[in-house]
From TrEMBL:
GO terms for molecular function: peptidase activity. Its main location: membrane. This is Zinc metalloprotease. It comes from Streptomyces boetiae. Residues 330-390 form the CBS domain.
Amino acid sequence: MRASIALGRIAGIRIGVNWSVLLIFGLIALGLAAGRLPEAHPGRGAALYAAAGLATAVVFFASLLAHELAHAVVARRNGVGVDDIVLWLLGGATRMRAEAPSPGAELRIAGAGPLVSLLLGGLFTAAAWAFEAVGGSPLLVEATAWLAAINVLLALFNVVPAAPLDGGRLLRAFLWWRTGDRLRATAGATTAGRAFGWVLVGLGLWGFLFGAALGGLWLALIGWFLVAAATQEGRQARLREALSGVPVRETMTPDPVTVPEERTVAEVLAGPPSGPGGLGGAPEVTRGPGRHASFPVTGRDGVAVGLLPLERALRVPPGDRPGTTVGAVMVPLAEARTAEPDEPLADLVPRLEPGSERRVLVLAGDGRPAGIVAPSDVNRTVREMAAHPAPPQHHGGTPPA
């Protein structure tokens, strides 16, 4: 899930929201302002209901962010890097750079989010009681009670033992501990996720046909998402298992053509190549998407400073291109996905997404571009491995006949 709007960083972790958040934010705010709040406490002005609904929706999304930050913080403490957190239509997603190193680490990382939501539910419950005890605004008490209930429900829903929910991670940790096989544990968790998703789809369709149209459609949507996400998670786990032991350097496109940050967009799109390894613009950049859909951007010392997706350059109006530098339109290095040549390719898989802005820039130890990786590079590696499987290893004993 991609972030449409970047909100900044918390503890060094990129935070963003997908455009779909606007839909659920609006539904929550409207449902509270036009439904629950006036029904529970009639007689107030519409502006007061609207303000209370908006404020409650904001706090709810802050609670979701706290849930995801708990995953991220615990992941880091267990040696697992975190790329970013994205809030979207059905909650949030924390993108991690690698698998948990052990079943215990998986258990701690997965359990942190629901535990924080449960704690928030308790805190909001105590706050609602306190507000009511001191004669606080009925709307404040009602909104706080709603936040308490929704956080407890969020915690309970997330511990359902079905991937990709946190409960699916907990189930995988248990199966991994019992069997010692992470891939087999993932298969069990994703199977449970698909089964649970189809149950929700069935219940949603039943509700749609027999009176609860909107609620039924929403439940079916959640179920369908769970089925799709669990299926994708299973595929990714099998892919990572197949790529085990393969370093990034064996897949990346090495020695990529680079773009100096002081070059103008017009030069990049229209000029001839300039300098060894540098690009002032070349016929190949006009070929469209493919292996040259993005270019590493370098400073004067040759160190990478960002990534230039061709589509970003093409979005600059023709009249502005002569005065617009590459540095002004590139993806800054802090926002780009990066890797090291000797990093396991399997750890790179979760960070790969379609789109030229999502290319992974491979950096040498001195910060200079060593290569670039696109999903097509991984697919090529998988095809080559399938066409030329490694022979089985023989460890001592009598040689096979």
